Amino acid sequence: MNSKKKRALRFHFVTLFQEACDPYLSASILGRARANKKISVSYQNPRDFVDNKWGKVDERPYGGGPGMVMTALPVVRAAEKALKGKKGKIALVWFSPGAKQFTNTDADKLTAYDDIVFICGRYEGIDDRARVMLKKLGKLHEFAVGEAVYTGGEVPALAITDAVTRRLPGVLGKDASVEERRVSSHYVYTRPEAITWKKKTYKVPAVLKTGHHANIDGWKSTGK
User: Dihedrals φ, ψ of 145, to 5°?
Assistant: First the structure.
């Protein structure tokens, strides 16, 4: 077994809106993971890699249609800058509503990487040539996060960062805290045992107070 301490998993956000991401990534468990050097987070703004003096990153779509499309080169250059000097195992994440749904299995697989780059599109999306070009930089993963369409890629990127980070050793304190690695339930209860509200009493399910682990696990599996 290799006793060498694993370095922080590095997350890189290619985004126009760092301010939409950093508050969430600085709070609670993710904030502690950053402080404890379990993960690191960096940002690259495509506006810093344009060839025009206005910082313009979008153009009208070929073939017509509403809205604007982010141009390819600023996005690719931003990802390339994020990975400059990096020699580990690299994953790039491209978001598309029609792509494979992101799962816990995917989150587990992403923990094996050293660098994960999220390509956060806006407007009507990113010129698809960027997706093809990004394959030159590392392993490209295409995901959808939920079945809804979002304003940008930041929300899906935050969701994946959260899902991956909580799987890293030491982030949650105990590996058993990762719900999908143990018998878990959608329904949880805590003290007090009985709550009275508007003349009605709400009690904790009796099985949870028995101490009978097999019965409790059976209840957690079925909710009954």
Answer: -115, 100
